[in-house]
Amino acid sequence: MGEGGSMKCLLVYPRFTSTSFWNYLPVCDLVGAKYPAAPLGLCTVAAMLPQEWELRLVDCNTQDLKDEDLQWADIVFSGGMIAQQGEHVKLLERVKAAGKVHVVGGPDATSSPHIYDIATHLVLGEAEVTLPEFLEDFKSGNAGHLYAAGKRQADMSLTPIPRYDLLNFDNYLHVGVQFARGCPFNCEFCDIIELFGRVPRIKEDDQMLKELTYLYDLGYRGHVDFVDDNFIGNKSKAKKLLPKLRDWLEEHNWPFEFTTEATINLADDEVLLNLMQETGFSAIFVGIESPDEDTLKQTQKGQNTKRSIPRVSSGLTV
Q: Distance between CA 252 and CA 179 in Å, rounded?
């Protein structure tokens, strides 16, 4: 196997095994999809790999990982969240038994690297930071076991357009895009600020439109979810993007409808609410957590204590 040359690379997304927020399968059955969301993280990693590598992606939530897939591969990449941990560990053992080089990353491995230590290589933190270092060492035949980002954070303006061409769109309820990482708040139960920090980092507006254009050119139409940790973490940047996004939609005859996640302080900004509504946002996921103000204060979710949640919830029309 020539580490510096062309490689057959298999990207594997482990299965979610329990019914939860991540796999509302009865809804999928209603519309003929196999799974709610496409694996945006692995599609993004795929875009960072050498162009001469041959890539295949297996999402174990939509298809089985076959022995032939592993036999084909020279190297395997995988990543996932804590809700995938059990299946991810089984994948580790299966890849090791097949004698393949296995590169593991993602949020769960970054939080609990000891669980994934049998992998050949751990490339942790944001891939934009650690993956280039690993690939350079791998090319020269000197790749180490562990690559960690430390306090370094990715420059989102350098994130490539994800390899959406590796997906079968018919398998999913929606496809994800990402505008920003990080959240300015300090909820004590949330790992986002531990993984990605409290200063939201933002993609360029034109960069975001190019991603949507690529999805459009691939023939995708329908639901696009902005998977941002908090879409309004930087309100001024969101307000700057939205009119351009609306113009793009009009030029392309409104091929997408959008959803996202945001904090409840969105309700305080009528201008932003109207912009999002005008730009085709049909639903917003808001973390309420508790109606009890003392509980909210104890969990450092102070942004939810500054208003009447029942009144705000009834008035959110986006």
A: 20
